[in-house]
Here is the input.
Amino acid sequence: MTDLAAGTGPAGPIVSPVLAPRRRFMLLRRLLAHRSFQIGAALVVILTAAAVLAPLITGLDPVAMKVRFRFRPPSAAFPFGTDNFGRDILTRVLYGARVSLWIGLVVTLLSGFLGAAIGMIAAQFRGVDAPLMRVMDALMSFPAILLALGITAALGPRMESVIIALTVAYVPAGVRIVRASALVVRELDYVQAARIAGAGNARIMFRHILPNSVGPLLVHMTFVFAYSILAEAALSFLGVGVPPPTPSWGNIIAEGRDYATEAWWVMLFPGIAISLAALGLNLLGDGLRDVLDPRLKGAG
Amino acid sequence: MPSAPLVSIDDLTVQFRTDRGWSTAVEGVSFDIGDGDCVGVVGESGSGKSVTALSMLRLHARRTARFAGGSVRYDGRDLLRIPESDLRRIRGRDIAMVFQDPMSSLNPVLTICDQISESLRLHQNMSRADARRRAVELLDLVRIADAGRRVDEYPHRLSGGMRQRVMIAIAIACRPRLLIADEPTTALDVTIQAQILELLRDLRAELGMAVMLISHDLGVIAEFARRVIVMYAGRVVEDAPVDVLFRRPLHPYTEGLMASVPAIEGETARLYSIPGRIPDPDEVVAGCRFGPRCGYAEPVCRAAMPDLVAVDGDHRVRCTPRSRAAGAV
Here is the structure.
């Protein structure tokens, strides 16, 4: 699970400048012309819009129970059906999107930031490299989901603990990626040239090495986003995720599993939502990688 | 030559960490660079030219390199021993450097203006606007056409020759007293090479700075330098004014280098090359390190490493038979 498609191999880390303003427009144009990026971005935008606009799309309360309406199959009144408490599944999936996507977003940003920071420190301060990387190796030696399961079990079932657990689980891969490309970039002539111009360590790190090392991390982060949505679902399914009655895609499925044979719709629709989100983010990440990775540039 | 040298390298010895302990890349290198002087350093790959240059600004990684001895005196101070923060003030302001490969010497995410401004803003506390104005001036100075527009471009829009001009503009931004040019023309086309050398020569005259030009190409050195230092296997083997060196090379290695330069006139059936290869830093060679490749080797050459001896004023050579024949010692 931690072995992501972003290419953690240190053999030839992708070194791609992404932050130069004018080049960024160029990259943006290429991105927007990329087919799988278009599809991925469209999916992600639709799901995000659905999450943000949830109260406008459905007038119902995601947690209000109406036992009268329990287990209604999909119909005009309840397009996705209702669950064992008579709650509208469409409403719960929409509100669940807020929780699931929020967890994905926060985990992605946190683990990306920490990955960049720790990776840069490891690459720049060679004395702390070995101890830091051994800690990261130790974290990586557990399957991410098991690690997260242990942490949430210890911290208690809350949304915050899910976020902390998943961040801890996904930081090491980001660290490896940033460290690998920073190690390449720091040996390039322009870093030496900056040193010759009289630049200090901090300036060299933030102005010269970091912007040239984060390309691969950005690609990796889109996959982390997808994985954390999946992992949140898994944790909720196992009972250590977001606690009910707050809906998340994971715990809607978890609550539906006891009635899977009679009320298939309870599990089906949040499942579809998870698949679409994961698919969209993966396509988006593929597009980003194609555009940022000079080695795979071809059809452009 | 002026009385006190600008930079004085004395007995510089640099070692690098390898799997088998410390290996010596440069040993006992001594030479002076006068104010406004123009020194060429020649030698084949692995002779220690670049290591010497990088040592002058202490640019080797601290964990893998060390100075086993010697000093680099500049402005009354030993650059090998002053604190890093003092050294940072000297880098870029007093001593600047240009590298071999202009394609990788510019940061792809910063504009030309940002990169030229870097040392100006670091050393002279210039405002953004002043630094920009100065950057345009500098681009003009290194003869980049349409400097006002070029200054806002990113490096990928420039050709190799233009990038090397930009590198030179960055190096001279703070009017350094010494410019170290490490193989500045090796990665360029021959026509561009000549232009860059001419530019360096003009800038040297205009700004009155000293230039240390490192090259493996004797032709480039002959055209540019006033004094030539020949290095072999981490040591200086000959040091002479350029006309003396080309008229009367003393060291057999220098002779070999000259014989290896292709002649324009006459049919040369086969280009001469010095037999053998440069020894590894760890290789034990008895006596003179050039001995095994030298056509004139005598028993005395294997007995001890020859000293660098002054044979005639400012002509120094590290070859026992030749310096004896020339009447020294």
Q: What stands out?
A: Chain B has two domains: 7-94+178-288, 103-175. DSSP finds twelve helices and twelve strands in chain B. The longest strand of chain B covers residues 21-33. Chain B has a mean pLDDT of 86.
